Amino acid sequence: MRSLDPLDLYEINDLLTDEERMIRDSVARFVDEKALPLIPKCFEEGRFPSELIPEIADMGLLGSSLEGYGCAGLNAVSYGLICQELERGDSGLRSFVSVQSSLCMYPIHAFGSEEQKEHWLPKMAAGEVIGCFGLTEPHGGSDPANMKTRAKRDGDDWVLNGAKMWITNGTVADIAIVWAMTDDGVQGFIVEKDFDGYAARDIHAKMSLRASVTSELYFDNVRVPDANRLPGVTGLKGPLSCLSQARYGITWGPIGSAVACLREVLDYSQERELFGRPVAATQSAQIRMADMARRITSAQLLSWRLGKLKDAGRIHPTQISLAKWNNVRMAIDIARDCRDLLGGAGITLEYAAIRHALNLESVITYEGTETIHQLAVGRELTGHSAF
Ligand code: TGC
Ligand code: FAD
Predict the structure, then answer these.
(1) Residues near ligand 1 with C-beta < 6 Å?
(2) 245: domain CATH number?
(3) Which of 25, 158, 200, 245 has the fewest CB atoms inside 10 Å of its own CB, making it the most exposed?
(4) What pLDDT score was predicted for residue 304?
(5) Catalytic positions, please?
(6) How many independent structural domains does the chain possess?
(7) Are 149 and 199 in a shared domain?
(8) What is the full DSSP assignment across 197-264?
């Protein structure tokens, strides 16, 4: 009987095209050779490894699923595999690419004017302009319909007032895609970092996503030209459709975190001998690791199928909610359990489990908390909105 790859028990590898495998393997090489040697130290120091941005851009990972304007036009499975491999390194790396691609380049591509697309997208694909996405506000991110940030029309400009909280890349961004309430409903604005009255400040003392920048944004009578408004969308469906893009990628990312943790613990439990045998030869360790493989396999199949639905133009937000909920829950449980199987060694950054477990505390909260996604599925099943 042939032996199986413990990290790909259902041979998802065979479902991928040659191009998808090539993309996955090249990102995997980048993560192993360039990112992982830096990441634990960056996590310890609380800094994003910005020196990796040029190579991330050269590999075509920024806006990779968009067509034209210097973007690679890859399919959904390829984008998912990129997220998976980056997050196998660290959630902060995947976050950086998610925000730039799905939350900043996507809305310009989908809702921007031709001038906005030509001006911003090639520079963003090249990593020369970094974006951030401002939706969440200090009083409560789960209910963005209750937005307090306002934009008021004044001649050819808009005047923006308010604040955004927990914004990835806020202080390193050259532009912020800011969603604000107007007299006509929610609209999106491209706020440039040197606009008067705009300020960003980092949030410190984070115990999660330490290799990523998280910031607050402030708008004090910021004048934004109408040319910087995204003309193609009004209403909450603007930011929510960006979230659908990012959440799709996030269904894949935590598979990478879980694979990194299981791989580490498979090795460790073979070498660690207790009570006269390797930990891997005990029944309870095997049951725990088998359960991890079962849950990783289910997550892999969910995301692969979701990718096919996305490419066929049939993806539904509830399907994304189910997979975001399932896959992040799967990964955080596995990371915590792997941390325990490593014993005392598991509390150090020498091993990846505790870093992934801590990172996933953010991933389970952002892009819709686990509760929000459970309620989205509940709404689909019952027809009652219970938010
Ligand atoms: P609801 O009534 O459901 O919808 C309002 C309007 O939006 C439309 N819509 C969508 N359109 C496109 N794509 C989607 N996925 C859509 N979902 C909904 C909907 O059809 C409707 O349109 P219209 O024309 O009828 O007005 O809205 P609701 O107020 O009931 O809210 C539902 C809820 C709770 C699910 C939503 O508010 C929500 O998702 N809350 C969570 C907020 C969230 O996820 N924030 C994330 C912030 S960004 C972030 O975390 C980045 S992390 C980055 C990183 O580092 O990786
Ligand atoms: P709240 O909305 O206040 O929720 C608090 C608790 O209440 C949660 O447990 C929630 O599940 C629960 N809850 C909410 N509604 C209900 C309900 N109806 N029934 C029962 N329980 C409920 N946002 C951006 O806009 N851009 C970014 O780039 C970005 N990056 C982020 C990076 C990090 C590291 C983090 C941690 C967050 C980031 N966010 C970003 C914000 C993120 O999207 C929000 O934290 C998230 O949407 C939750 O909002 P909140 O933190 O205000 O929690």
Answers:
(1) 95, 98-99, 133, 135-136, 141-145, 168, 235-237, 240-241, 243-244, 246, 317, 366-368, 372, 376, 385, 387
(2) 1.20.140.10
(3) 25
(4) 98
(5) 367
(6) 3
(7) yes
(8) TEEEEE----SSSTTS-EEEEEEEEEEEEGGGB-TT--STHHHHHHHHHHHHHHHHHHHHHHHHHHHH
